[in-house]
Amino acid sequence: ACAGAVERALRGAGGVRSAAVSCVTNLAHVDFDPLVVTPTHMAALVEEIGFDASVVEERGRAPHTEHGNSPSEAPRRMGVELKIGGMTCTVCSGTVERCLQSQKGVVRATVSLVLSRAFVVCEGPAASPEELQEAVEAVGFDAEVAHAGAAASAGGRAVLHVRAAVDAGVEIDAFAKDIRGVLACQALAGHCGVRQIAYDPTAIGARGLLSRLQQEAGAAAKVEWTSVRLDNEQLQHHLTEMAKLRRGLKLAVPP
């Protein structure tokens, strides 16, 4: 519950692309736009909800080079996202995290109990995504590779508000959590039947996310979008998705 509260506070800040909190190391790994939000501001947000926070390390996105090496000569980093099943407490997430951190080539592994996900960064000769999956399964948890690719890919954050039947809220949360690119899903305070879904628009577009929710929840849930908010307006791809949504809505309304 504590880790989830900190993750939600960080993801709610403008400019934050993703945030994962480790109950084992007591560290939060945050991907953010420094032009929009600062580490000091994020630490203040965490302190506002009752936790101590300080900036431990800040790293840029540019590849790190030494001894005159060019960026192309720097070790290649790969990011792997695993869906984890069977975790019920921080002891479980800690077991999975330590397991992943011990694998060959892993430079960082963070497990989110709230999202049932593991986020792993590997460098150089390293264990494959399938080997990471097998390692987690070997310690007693279900695992599935949700995504694997270059760790330095550009991120982003957007929020989709959807309205659904009141009794479908819990199911919507469960469906959303299993969709790649979804960062969080929760009820929107003061708006009956509306769910607030934060997601990475470089992983899934607004139309694709809405379509998946409608497909998984079924017609009885009456899922429909109400609004889309983009935190990083430089993501032109997502702006295009928003324009398509608006055009689709206009075409659906009879004259």
UniProtKB/TrEMBL annotation:
Residues covered by the HMA domain: 1-54, 78-144
Organism: Zooxanthella nutricula
Origin organism lineage: Eukaryota, Sar, Alveolata, Dinophyceae, Peridiniales
Record flagged with keyword Metal-binding: yes
Keywords: Metal-binding
A Gene Ontology molecular function term of the record: metal ion binding
Protein name: HMA domain-containing protein
UniProt key word Nucleotidyltransferase: no
InterPro entries (UniProt xref): HMA_dom, HMA_dom_sf
Matching SUPFAM superfamilies: HMA, heavy metal-associated domain
